[in-house]
Design brief:
CATH class of one domain: Alpha Beta
Bound molecules: adenosine-5'-triphosphate
Radius of gyration: 18 Å
GO molecular function: ATP binding; ATP hydrolysis activity; branched-chain amino acid transmembrane transporter activity
Number of strands: 12
Order of helices and strands: EEEEEHEEHEHHHHEHEHEEH
Strand content: 25-35%
Pfam family, one: ABC_tran
Family: Belongs to the ABC transporter superfamily.
CATH topology of one domain: Rossmann fold
CATH superfamily of one domain: P-loop containing nucleotide triphosphate hydrolases
Distance between the termini: 10 Å
Number of helices: 9
InterPro entries: AAA+_ATPase, ABC_transporter-like_ATP-bd, ABC_transporter-like_CS, BCAA_Transport_ATP-bd_LivF, P-loop_NTPase
Protein name: ABC transporter ATP-binding protein
């Protein structure tokens, strides 16, 4: 079974995650031989996102997931699980679309679990929802303007995003609905990034994309990560995206985190492909 090393994998990435052990949360820090990027435009010395003993559901009385814990400084962490495992529910709980029924979400040490989705965007958490949910009748530019205004950020971020994803600049006057699936996904990601988040939650960004569009998406997200300004939580079932972007992948089964795979470990990469992706 060949290994699946992603390009520049784990460069600049550092993760500590929390698992609930018999004595309570146990902290695991860093990866051996990690390389820190020399140029960081934003200071991420403090922990970006701490998820502690989190519980949530589509209805408050019916938890879908519970006791979820991890800690993310920079880079990307993945969450993989079968359909119905609770990944979307977790993504929506982190972003505030669903209510936290127990536990804490800390961003830079500040509790945000009680904040509305909009306030959470202002605090630094943006969501790229499953299915993209761009405004098809609005132009590319208008989609970005809506996102910028919702976050109370300046429009100059739009120019930066058009520079980051040139296709969006070329197609700024086209309606969202007329973009290809891969372009729509880039627009959905750009809509989150113009909000200047600290953490972006991406819910199955590869869904419905062709293999080549997934490759392009991986390169685009890798570039964003390498700039070091945002950390990502990636709910995904696509192995190429997970190995190409994440330094660790949490295994989710029936609403519980049942283990962690270290994407710096070739054996864990094989495990990801063989056991969880059916390759
Ligand atoms: N709107 C809803 N109301 C109530 N229960 C829901 C709702 N959407 C999903 N569920 C249930 O919640 C559980 C978790 O679903 P969720 O969509 O979060 O999982 P997932 O891992 O994201 O799956 P998928 O990959 O299929 O999107 C499933 O049992 C599902 O049937």
């Amino acid at each position: 079974m060949p290994h699946h090393p992603g390009p520049q994998l784990r460069q600049g990435a550092r993760l500590g995650h929390l698992e609930r052990g018999a004595q309570g949360p146990v902290r695991h820090r860093g990866l051996p031989g990690e390389v820190r990027r020399p140029a960081q435009r934003r200071d991420h010395n403090v922990t970006t996102l701490s998820v502690i003993d989190l519980q949530g559901g589509y209805r408050e009385s019916v938890p879908v997931f519970s006791e979820v814990g991890f800690e993310l400084d920079r880079g990307a962490i993945g969450v993989i699980g079968r359909n119905g495992a609770g990944k979307t529910c977790l993504a929506q709980t982190l972003s505030g679309a669903l209510t936290t029924t127990n536990g804490s979400i800390l961003l830079g040490g500040r509790a945000v679990e009680h904040l509305s989705p909009r306030a959470r965007v202002s605090a630094g958490i943006s969501l790229v929802p499953e299915g993209r949910l761009i405004f098809g009748q609005l132009t590319v530019r208008e989609n970005l303007e809506v996102a910028v205004h919702a976050a109370g950020r300046g429009e100059k971020r739009i120019a930066a995003m058009e520079e980051q994803f040139p296709i969006l600049g070329h197609k700024r006057s086209m309606r969202g609905a007329s973009l290809s699936g891969g372009e729509q996904q880039l627009l959905a990601i750009a809509r989150a990034l113009v909000q200047e988040p600290t953490v972006v939650i991406l819910d199955e960004p590869s869904l419905g994309l062709s293999p080549i569009a997934v490759d392009n998406l991986t390169v685009a997200l890798r570039q964003v990560l390498d700039e070091g300004e945002v950390a990502m939580v990636l709910m995904e079932q696509n192995g190429e995206l997970l190995t190409g972007l994440c330094h660790s992948v949490l295994l989710m089964d029936q609403g519980a985190i049942t283990g962690t795979l270290d994407m710096g470990d070739p054996a864990d990469q094989d495990k990801l492909f063989e056991s969880y992706l059916g390759v």
